[in-house]
């Protein structure tokens, strides 16, 4: 049990670290599309965006290294880059046909982060003192990367063939493959491990060779922006769910609330619904019901899978640099296949979500926001970000109980010493908190797009207290 708990925490930290390099994709995709011939036709802007996608593996090695480092130090990122360059160069020397693609960046980033956390404070004898501390991390990373290159030089051939065959199977499975991926993607959201699954689907599975440059790119997202006409099957189906399905859930919750409470919750629900529609960030809505009604969340996962399967079956292909919101929908219209059908499918998805959630909330008496006065968010919201951060820190058991805090797009990822000191109910009563997830000594607090600011505030508070 302890092994599984430790594994879960480590996987969570990798999922969190993946968010840092992924965060650069929206800007790169925007540049890539704005400079395209069918938009502004400015080649240097397209090249600027393409530079990110062309060097995605290197960016992952740097971003994951920094993301895994306990103090987010840049030395871990530099170590990740060194590890990646050594690993890939040595592999090519062993066998020109070996290509780890983005996986080489992920492996190098994890390697750098782990080594940094272990050795960044190491002290060497005085005559070697210059090479101690963070410099020692770079040296160890280089040595480990040589060893990894030798290992992968032997084992990566069969691994590469296996991953290629798995990718081909998933792609060849068509509607079934998209359905399974859609379901798993949502089911992994509560534990924050969906980023790991996404990394394989978006950046590893499937291969496309650019007919002009000869460059080989892998993964559904990479291939879509490289111009692969068959890419986008694992992304298109998220648009109906995120732009229409989640706003329908928010509307269902609003109509299921007591009439006298609707004015109080209307602003909150409208905000999270618009966020989902515009940007494709769905977690603030999902955390409003995933723990209140787990079975209903499973239904949501199945509906997501069906959305992916239906869009693929109808020949719809689309992609995104960040998520399946209206911004990406408009920007990537020119690269998409049959994007107009997403609106029609979305209307059906909206009706399905609204009907199912309206019925289930009332029939099973699910205590969604506004249905019961005691579950209403507090009116005395914190006056500023610092006060909010103080409240959350107190709910986590105070400064002495918190051993680690980081964030992804919408949630705080914390590790605590004593779980019994965490006030789950108190955290949930904070107006800005959308949900709390506990696994072992790992606690996730869903706070929406303010997650990074709150994490920084808490780190500042902890620093000021020594």
Automatic annotation (TrEMBL):
BP GO annotations: N-acetylglucosamine transport; phosphoenolpyruvate-dependent sugar phosphotransferase system
N-terminal signal peptide: none
CC annotations in GO: organelle inner membrane; plasma membrane
Pfam families tied to this protein: PTS_EIIB, PTS_EIIC
Transmembrane portions of the chain: 51-68, 75-91, 97-116, 136-157, 169-188, 200-219, 231-253, 265-281, 287-309, 316-335, 341-361
Membrane topology: Multi-pass membrane protein
Entry keyword annotation includes Chaperone: no
Protein location: Cell membrane
CDD domains listed in its UniProt record: PTS_IIB_glc
SUPFAM superfamilies associated with the record: Glucose permease domain IIB (SSF55604)
Chief location category: membrane
GO molecular function, one term: kinase activity
Active site feature: 408 (phosphocysteine intermediate)
Gene3D superfamilies reported in the protein's UniProt record: Glucose permease domain IIB
Keywords, in A-Z order: Cell membrane, Kinase, Membrane, Phosphotransferase system, Sugar transport, Transferase, Transmembrane, Transmembrane helix, Transport
Ranges for domain PTS EIIC type-1: 5-373
Domain PTS EIIB type-1 as annotated: residue spans: 386-466
InterPro entries: Glu_permease_IIB, PTrfase_EIIB_Cys, PTS_EIIC, PTS_EIIC_1, PTS_Glucose_EIICBA, PTS_IIB_1, PTS_IIBC_nag
NCBIfam families noted in UniProt: EIIB_glc, PTS-II-BC-nag
Protein name from the UniProt record: PTS sugar transporter
Source species of the chain: Anaerovibrio lipolyticus
């Amino acid at each position: 049990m302890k092994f599984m708990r430790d594994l879960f925490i480590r996987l969570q930290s990798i999922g969190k670290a993946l968010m840092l390099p992924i965060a650069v994709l929206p800007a790169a995709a925007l540049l890539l599309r704005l400079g395209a011939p069918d938009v502004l036709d400015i080649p240097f802007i397209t090249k600027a965006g393409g530079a990110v996608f062309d060097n995605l593996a290197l960016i992952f090695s740097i971003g994951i290294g920094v993301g895994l480092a306990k103090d987010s130090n840049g030395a871990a990122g530099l170590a990740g880059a060194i590890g990646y360059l050594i690993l890939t160069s040595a592999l090519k020397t062993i066998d020109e046909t070996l290509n780890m693609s983005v996986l080489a960046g992920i492996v190098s980033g994890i390697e750098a982060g782990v080594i940094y956390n272990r050795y960044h404070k190491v002290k060497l004898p005085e005559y070697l003192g210059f090479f101690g501390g963070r410099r020692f991390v770079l040296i160890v990373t280089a040595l480990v990367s040589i060893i990894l290159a030798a290992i992968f030089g032997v084992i990566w051939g069969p691994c590469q063939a296996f991953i290629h065959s798995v990718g081909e199977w998933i792609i060849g499975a068509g509607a079934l493959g998209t359905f399974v991926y859609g379901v798993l993607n949502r089911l992994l959201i509560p534990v924050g491990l969906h980023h790991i699954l996404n990394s394989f689907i978006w950046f590893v599975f499937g291969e496309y060779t650019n007919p002009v440059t000869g460059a080989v790119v892998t993964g559904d997202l990479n291939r879509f922006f490289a111009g692969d006409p068959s890419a986008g099957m694992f992304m298109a189906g998220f648009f109906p769910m995120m732009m229409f399905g989640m706003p329908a859930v928010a509307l269902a919750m609003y109509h299921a609330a007591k009439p006298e409470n609707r004015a109080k919750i209307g602003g909150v629900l409208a905000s999270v619904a618009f966020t989902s529609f515009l940007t494709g960030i769905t977690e603030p809505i999902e955390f409003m019901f995933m723990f209140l009604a787990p079975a209903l969340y499973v239904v949501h996962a199945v509906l997501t899978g069906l959305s992916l399967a239906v869009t693929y079956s109808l020949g719809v292909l689309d992609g995104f640099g960040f998520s399946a919101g209206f911004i990406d929908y408009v920007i990537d219209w020119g690269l998409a296949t049959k994007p107009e059908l997403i609106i029609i499918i979305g209307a059906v998805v909206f009706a399905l979500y609204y009907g199912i959630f309206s019925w289930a909330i009332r029939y099973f008496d699910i205590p969604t926001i506004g249905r019961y006065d005691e579950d209403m968010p507090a009116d005395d919201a914190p006056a500023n970000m610092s006060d909010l951060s103080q409240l959350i820190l107190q709910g986590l058991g105070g400064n002495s109980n918190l051993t680690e805090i980081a964030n992804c797009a919408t949630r705080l990822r914390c590790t605590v010493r004593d779980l019994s000191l965490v006030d789950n109910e108190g955290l949930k009563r904070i107006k800005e908190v959308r949900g709390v997830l506990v696994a072992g000594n790992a606690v996730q607090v869903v706070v929406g797009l303010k997650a990074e600011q709150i994490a920084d505030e808490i780190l500042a508070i902890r620093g000021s207290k020594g």
